[in-house]
Amino acid sequence: MKILCIGRNYAEHIAELQNETPDAPVIFAKPDTALLQRNQPFFIPDFSQDIHHEIELVLRICRNGKNIEEKFAPTYFDAIGLGIDFTARDLQSKLKSKGLPWELAKGFDGSAPLSQDFLPVADFPDLKNINFRLEVNGEVRQQGNSGLMLHDFSNIISYISRFITLKMGDLIFTGTPSGVGPVKLGDQLTGYIEDLQLLNLAVK
Ligand code: MG
């Protein structure tokens, strides 16, 4: 199982970090040791003073595929869940400024909390109109809608599979909307797709 992530997939988030809008999806990976499941608490690591939350819709791949055409891409994922792409923003900024890979800022242990429940794709009336949000201590911090993604699910799957074979069980984090920000000790993070709470974890 591998975890692939899309960066810079929402215009307002690109603007808030003053990044350039990419022509093609920006892809990076997290190792399986980044996964944090069953609402286990997130422990702030000692190498960062600026861990940011990034709430994201997550696709679960259900078939192996390579060079997947966009029109067939919807048959390659069967469920959508919710995840947080925790990012050590201070470390990432340092790496970015030197043109170096982001792995350590994005792939550290526990950097990928994932909802236990995934919702079957068939339950969504419109994949281009899925609302999701993150609340911190009960206050809405990030709000997104899949219709605002620069690269939609099919585009992402098709693009990735030109380079990397997708396998059953792989996870794709599809990018974060605006509103990212630091977490602090004692925060309680809750994540929702529509009004269904799928994530609820403590920051320790
Ligand atoms: Mg992200």
Automatic annotation (TrEMBL):
Alphabetical list of SUPFAM superfamilies matching this protein: FAH
Keywords associated with the record: Metal-binding
Keyword Metal-binding: yes
Matches recorded under Pfam families: FAA_hydrolase (PF01557)
Ranges where the Fumarylacetoacetase-like C-terminal domain occurs: 2-196
Span of the signal peptide: none
The keyword Metal-binding belongs to this UniProt entry's keyword annotation: yes
GO molecular function: acetylpyruvate hydrolase activity; metal ion binding
InterPro entries (UniProt xref): Fumarylacetoacetase-like_C, Fumarylacetoacetase_C_sf
Entry superkingdom: Bacteria
PANTHER family listed in its UniProt record: ACYLPYRUVASE, ACYLPYRUVASE FAHD1, MITOCHONDRIAL
Protein name: 2-keto-4-pentenoate hydratase/2-oxohepta-3-ene-1,7-dioic acid hydratase (Catechol pathway)
Organism: Hymenobacter psychrotolerans DSM 18569
